Amino acid sequence: xxxxxxxxxxxxxxxxxLGTDLTGxxxxxxxxxxxxxxxxxxxxxxxxxGLCDALAPLPAALAAHDTRQARIAAQxxxxxxxxxxxxxRRWGASRVAxxxxxxxxxxxxxxxxxxxxxPLPAGFDVARQHALQATIEVVRACSGARGxxxxxxxxxxxxxKAFGSAARLIAAxxxxxxxxxxxxxxCETTVRGFTALELVAPDHCRPFDVARRGLSLGxxxxxxxxxxxxxxxxxxxxxxxxxxxxHMSAPHPxxxxxxxxxxxxxxxxxxxxxxxAFINAHGTGTALNDAAEAKAIARVFGARTPVVAxxxxxxxxxxxxxxxxxxxxxxxxxxxxxxxxxxxxxxDATLGIDVVVQRRxxxxxxxMSNSFAFGGSNAAVIVGLA
Amino acid sequence: MIDxxxxxxxxxxxxRGAPRAELIPAAMxxxxxxxxxxxxxxxxxxVxxxxxxxxxxxxHGTAFGEIATTAELLDMMRDxxxxxxxxxxxxxxxxxxxxxxxxxxxxxxxxxxxxxxxQTVAAAWLEAQAWLASGASDVLLVVADEPMPAQLHPHxxxxxxxxxxxxxxxxxxxxxxxxxxxRRDVPAAAAVPAPLRSNPVRWAxxxxxxxxxxxxxxxxxxxxxxxxxxxxxxxxxx
Lengths: 386, 238
Known about the structure:
The structure holds 2 protein chains of 2 kinds.
Chain A: E1 2-16, H1 22-30, E2 36-38, E3 48-50, H2 68-77, H3 81-91, E4 96-101, H4 107-113, H5 126-130, H6 133-143, E5 149-152, H7 158-171, E6 177-184, H8 188-196, E7 220-227, E8 234-243, H9 256-269, E9 276-280, H10 287-301, E10 306-308, H11 311-314, H12 321-335, E11 337-338, E12 354-355, E13 360-361, E14 366-373, E15 377-385
Parallel strand pairs in A: 4-5, 4-6, 9-10, 9-14, 10-12
Antiparallel strand pairs in A: 1-7, 1-8, 2-3, 6-7, 8-15, 11-13, 14-15
Chain B: E1 4-13, H1 26-29, H2 34-48, E2 57-61, H3 67-77, H4 86-90, H5 96-105, E3 111-115, H6 120-133, E4 138-145, E5 159-166, E6 175-180, H7 202-210, E7 217-219, E8 230-234
Parallel strand pairs in B: 2-3, 2-4
Antiparallel strand pairs in B: 1-5, 1-6, 4-5, 6-8, 7-8
Helix pairs in contact in B: 2-5
């Protein structure tokens, strides 16, 4: 099942290790510059990860919500506030919804406050800092949007699936515009967790490379405004969703669930695989993920559709990865240029897909972005030129 | 707004004792958290009532998700070298319950997990309604929040509620529901019992309670800012 929408994406914003706004992020991608760097921490073995720089403080009225997560959310929101103001006026603020994917929420604040068996310090507020809803509250307060608001939390597919929810809210007449995207902040839990799963690369991630040895982590925000009608360069066309029903932390080895999500998106967009100009893969750089995803892509698309992985720029932003990659896909489609898959120097020939390793000019109307997650939660998002 | 038919409902509260969660095989269930077993328990009741789980879209609402597992991980980080259990980490995500249920039952359809604090049930209702409006034949709406770990506040009892929802008229619905502007001439639903008053998904308890009413009942989520909407339940013959 999926949702065919074709609602215009009227505003876009990114904040991650490449830059704190769209201009900075786009410049880094145009220069094929990675945001990954070695971080001086004791949470795990050496590796390179993508951390946001220079986040602005929150407005004083949001002091009780002050976490790194909240700052990333506010920073990402600020550049598109003008577009949101217009949407609030056009549709009425109660018709502007908020759907944001996140997996970490503000758990970094809980980590800082936590001592085994001891009471948490005064000033720590589980609802306003730890809970995923806190991110929604910050976006609601800053944006003025007053429609329904919720966080989608299906691990690394969270913010791709948020686009599906946004499209359905508009289609069901529960909203006319949706602030949609993802926000996640790097924290001890995820670094130690992926280290425990032996999934962290010792140097940097190399998606689809023959020598890939794991993922690099990242953090940031990605927000878009999707409206019932409006002028835009790109549209949200369809979202396909599926579940592996296989394993909590490993993909189905044949990519069954991933293929089902891609097929569902194509079916409900009414598109043939050949109409997809390129695929922005989930492409984490772990041995199993990339192999399963390549099998799924080859099954649905054959060997010719170009595939790019952008996690070599930003790191794996987990709950924010899906939305970041949907937006990067929309930007590349609008520009007609696909960036190289940073970190992939020697394509793993056994994968049987066409990995983009040098900047490539493309002509096409549609592109797909894949996101897969713990719990076998899969989403494929199709964006198209307006 | 479309009418939504509530075909069946199930509720778990602490007084019912440990959930059996029989949809998950015993070997797997032993490693499952209470939050996951609660979801499996109430879902199992609806399967027993005839809900076609394989074709149902699953909308799972939870404000705090796997909060007990999260607290365990936080303790591990503060002990010794701070290493985490990979199994605990992989089952700390908010979609753990639906992921485990999908593995146990071979559910390959769409499934989502959402969180909206005190508004989690209302958000799950809207997501479910949007799925139905976009063509899903059956939706399993399941909300659950397990008790809070001792260090976190406020404390509350665990609660899980599952609703089998359809958009098509079918024989024997428990109630017909419509999300709309509150009508003050319709009586409000009963308040929740004290041990559940700070459970973020308590509003679902009120929905199930109202199913037995012979008249129209108005359910206003505690704090859905800006929506100015309520859920109105009426008996199927109304």
